Amino acid sequence: MKVGYLGPAATYTNEAALKQFGSEAELIPMRTIADVFLAVGNSQLDYGVVPVENTLEGGVTYTLDMFGRADLDEIMICAEIMLPIRSHLMVAQNGPKSLNEIKVVLSHPQALGQARGWLQNNLPNVEIVEETSTSRSAELVAGRTDAAAIAPILCAEAYNLKVLASDLQDADFNQTRFFVIYKHRPRWPMPVLNNSDEGVPITAIMISIKDKVGTLHAVTDIFMRYDINLVRIESRPSKQKAWDYVFFIDLQGQPGQPHVANALHELASETTWAKVLGWWNRSSKV
Ligand SMILES: O=C(O)C(=O)C[C@]1(C(=O)O)C=C[C@@H](O)C=C1
Questions:
Q1: ipTM of this complex > 0.85?
Q2: Poorest-confidence range of 74-83, 89-98, 132-141, 183-192?
Q3: Residue 198 Cα, ligand 1 centroid: separation in angstroms?
Q4: Distance from the CA of 47 to the CA of which of 1, 184, 222, 230 falls in 20 to 30 A?
Q5: What GO biological process, any one, is recorded here (predicted)?
């Protein structure tokens, strides 16, 4: 079984993939989140692990936008992984000895955002450089004497770096949610990964609604009438025309339940486009 994740080795996504698949799978680092989607889409990978949402920084837009691509229409979600996120400031062994010797800080934009307060308080004048992942920034600072990376602790060992400061995240409830994605082929049963019957059933949908007064109200009204709890609603530009949006909705329940099936059926009258992205059981454990 081949499972792709945002690489190089020792990203948070790598940790999430290990948590879900253990050593049973061949874990393959990919350069970008888009590359994970594309390799799942052309069946080079059986599964991909991608970050989707963080408790401090919100939605991972790179991931959300890939679900809107027409050429990746068959990609679905079959599980989610929650990971506590702790970040550290690390430098090369012969690099800066203290914070005032650091001129540049490299990291993934999500990790930089989660440490915004710490950076403002401790390194207000450094240049900030965004990289494709935290471990890519760790790999890059290994050869520099003026730079530091914000990265997970696994990177210190993987890239032989020393840690100058720990726990940079702006709150200790910092967590990221990841999706396991696969290419939907007509097969039954659907893959079920670590999804015990004990969790709360969640279904993710993506919709585009009619451009008229009250449509969003009508959509939420349908879910209210069927007693369906909405656990997340997030909008992104549709990228089809200006000021046009798609909505990502996570709801409690699964399409196999009659009340959810009926609600999704009724939803068609208010939407111009709709897709079920997948369903899984949410564990209460992090
Ligand atoms: O760069 C990494 O280590 C990643 O796995 C990406 C990512 C993200 O995109 O949200 C994953 C978890 C953290 O929130 C920070 C970065």
A1: yes
A2: 183-192
A3: 28
A4: 230
A5: L-phenylalanine biosynthetic process
